[in-house]
Amino acid sequence: xxxxxxxxxLKSSIxxxxxxxxxxxxxxxxxxxxxxxDEDSITLESVIVTGSRRAVKNALDAxxxxxxxxxxxxxxxxxxxxxxxxxxxSPAVSLPTSPAGGFGAAVAPGIALRGLTSxxxxxxxxxxxxxxxxxxxxxxxxxGRGAAGVDLSLIPISAVERVEIxxxxxxxxxxxxxxxxxxxxxxxxxxAGGNVNYQGGGFTQGDGVQHKISAxxxxxxxxxxxxxxxxxxxxxxxANNTLADTRVFYNNSSHPNHQYDExxxxxxxxxxxxxxxxxxxxxxxxxxxxxxxxxxLYSFGTYGHRESKGENFYEPxxxxxxxxxxxxxxxxxxxxxxxxxxxxxxxxxxxxxAKNGTQKTGKFDVFTTYGNNKVNTExxxxxxxxYGLGSPTQYHLGNNIxxxxxxxxxxxxxxxLSWLYSPLTVSTGALYRWEQYKQQAGxxxxxxxxxxYDNLNAPEIYAGITDQDxxxxxxxxxxxYVDLETDLIKDLxxxxxxxxxxxxxxxxxxxxxxxxxYNLDPKISIRGSASTGYRAPSLAQLxxxxxxxxxxxGTDGVWRDVQxxxxxxxxxxxxxxxxxxxxxxxxxxxxxxxxWEPVAKTALTVDVYQINIKDRILLSxxxxxxxxxxAFAGTAYANINNVAFFNNLLDTRTRGxxxxxxxxxxxxxxxxxxxxxxxxxxxxxITKTRNALTSKGEVIPSSAIAGRNTQSLIESAAPKIKLxxxxxxxxxxxxxxTNLRRYDKWSIQNNTNPGLDQTFDPxxxxxLDIGYSADQFVKGLxxxxxxxxxxxxxxxxxxxxxxxxxxxxxxxxxxxxxxxxLYGRISYDF
Length: 830
Known about the structure:
By secondary structure, the chain is mainly beta. Helices cover 10% and strands 47% of the residues. The strands form 7 sheets. The protein has a 22-stranded antiparallel barrel.
C-alpha cells in the first residue's frame, strides 16, 4: 500500500473483533432476538435505507423503485450463490449462468441491472461501498465482458437479513458506479438464536454435484449490543453438456498413423462447461456495541476463499498449433492435453465505525472500510516447448490484486421549518477513497525462452502476467455531498442530491439528482427522478495487461492458437492500433412511474426509464489479421498477432419499463398464498460510434475494434423481456414455493461468418421448493426438497458449436444449459 499500512488496518480490525468477542462474556442480561425472521416484518415493516435518507416504512413509500428480498425468498430459489439467487427473483437483474472453461473459472459473473454491465451497478454492504473483483471476464456474454464487478458469491447467504435493490440512477447519492442502480445487502443483526443447514444436490444428467453447509448465530453484547456470525462452506463438481469433438484424432507417439474412434480415445468427449469449485469458505460478522444512549460502535466484515478449475479446449497431438508441433509435447502428452485454469480467490473486507446523536439533534456516522480481492492463477497441464522435457506441467501465471479504502463522515438532521409540511431531512458528508490495482508476474517458465528454443519445433510460449506487465497503480478520490428531502405540501415529497468528487487521475465531476413523489390519493402515487452519473474506468480496466495463447477462428474458418495480448489503453502498442487513453463514462438517467395499492395487501408499480451513456467503456474484439500485422510490423510487438484493449468508441441509450405486482390471500382453513409478479423490458441501442486514431495518424473504423459481436453483446445478446412469477403457499407445517421465469428471444452476431448469426427463441423455466416443518418431532427442524428448472428446459442450441463442434449452448444463454438441478436441504433453528 502506498499511503496506508495494511498490517495496521488488519491489527486494528483484529483488536476490535477481539474486544467485541470479549464483551460476550461480560453480557449478563437475558437475550431476546432483535430481528425477527418473519417475512412480513421484512417486506412491510422495515426501514428502507436505499434511495432515501429518511426513515421510510416500506418500499412503496420510497421516492424511487426499491425491491426488498428476504432470506426466505433467497433460500426458496434453491441457489447457494447470492448473485444467482437474486437473478432468479428480480426481473431487473441479469446474470448469465453458462460461462464456461478457463475464463469461467477466473471470475464469477457479477449481477447487472437494467440491461447494463455489472460494473455499472454499485454494491453496498450495510450501506457502505463494497470493493470489486481484481479480475474481469474476457468471455463474450452480455453484461459481463470487460466488467470488473463485485463477486457476490463471496458473501454467505446465511448472513443476509435482506437485500434492497434500488432500480434508479444514484451516482449523486452514493457515488460513481451507480449508473444502473444500487444493490444494498443488509447483514443480520441478532443477539440470540441461529440456524444451521446443509444442502446437497446435482443435475439430473449426473454432474455438478454440490454440497453446502451454512450457519449463523447471534450473541448478546453489553448495553443491548449484538454480534452475529455467519458461515458458508461448500464445494461443487464441474458440470458439462457438450457434443463430441468433430476432429479426427491421431496419436503420433504410441499409435502412429492410427485414427482414433470413439472407443479408443479418452478425449472424444472432452468437457467444456461450468468449472469445478472446491475449498469454498465464506465468513462474516456484524456487530454493534452501544456505549451510551446516543453513541454506538459498530463493525462488520467478510472473508471469502474459493478454488476453481476450468477446463479449456482440448489439444490433440495432431494439432498444428505451435506448442503441439514440439516433439517434447508428444512425449509429455501422448494423447494430447486439456489445459486447465487453476484459480484461487482470497477476499476480505472490514468496516469500523461509530454513530452518535439522534435525528432531531443531528446524527453523525464516522466510518472506515478496507477491502482486498486477490486472484491467483496457475496453469494446469501446462507446457513451454522451449524448456523441452524439463518444462513443468503446472506453474504460476500471476496475481491480480485490488485494494480499496473508504473513509468518511455522514451527518443528517431533521429541521422543522414552518413553511414545509414535514421536517426537512438534511444529509451531508465528506469522503475519501483510495484504490490500488497490482499485477504480479507468474513463474518465469510461463513467459521466458528456455534452452531448447529453436523457433520451429520448440518455440517460446508466453502465458499470464510477464515481467513486462508488472505494475501497481492507484488513485485517490475526494468527495462531498448534500442531500435534502421533505414534503413540500401534504402529498408532495421532493428530494435533491448533489455530489462532487475529485479523482487524482480524471479530475473533478459534479452530479445531481431530483426526485418527486406525489400522492394523488391514499391509494395512488406518482414518482419520478432525473439524475446525472459518472463512472471512471476501473483500475483493472486501466492497468490490466497479459499474454495468453488464445484459440481463435480465422477468416478461413480454421481454429488456430495465436499469441494474444491484452494491451493497456494508451500504451505505445495500443496507440499503434487506435487504443488511446480511456475517458470516464458520463450518463443521464430519467425515470417516471406510479404506485397503486387498490386494497390491503395488494400493490402494483410501473416505472419507465431512459439511461444515456456517453463514452461507454468497452473491451474490444480480439483483433487479428492485416490490421495487427501492418501496425506492428518492424516494431518490438511484431510477434503479437491478436490483441484486445479497452476503448470509449460507443455511446448507448437504454430504455425500459418495469412492473411489479404483489397480492396476499388469506385462504382461511386452506392456508395463505402470496403472489408476486415482476416484468422488465429494456432496449439497448448504440446511438453513436467514433473512429479511432492511431499514433501514426491513421484512422481505424470503430467497427474494426468494436465489431459485430461486441455490438450484439450490447444491443441484442440479452433477452429484452424477463418475466418472473412467484407463489408462496403455507399451511401449518407445509410450505410450497414456485418460481417461474420467461426469457424473451435474444440474438448474437458472429464476427467472422454472418451465416452463423442466430436468434434464440423465448424460454420458460420453472422452479419448485417444498418445505416441511418437523417441529412436532424436533423443534426447529425443517426439511426442503426442490428442483431448479423442474421441466428440464434448455435454450436453443447454438449454430456455430464453436470450437470444433463441441459447444451445445451459447455462453449468453440466461439459463438451462445443464438442465434440471435437484436438491435437498435440512435446517435447524435454535
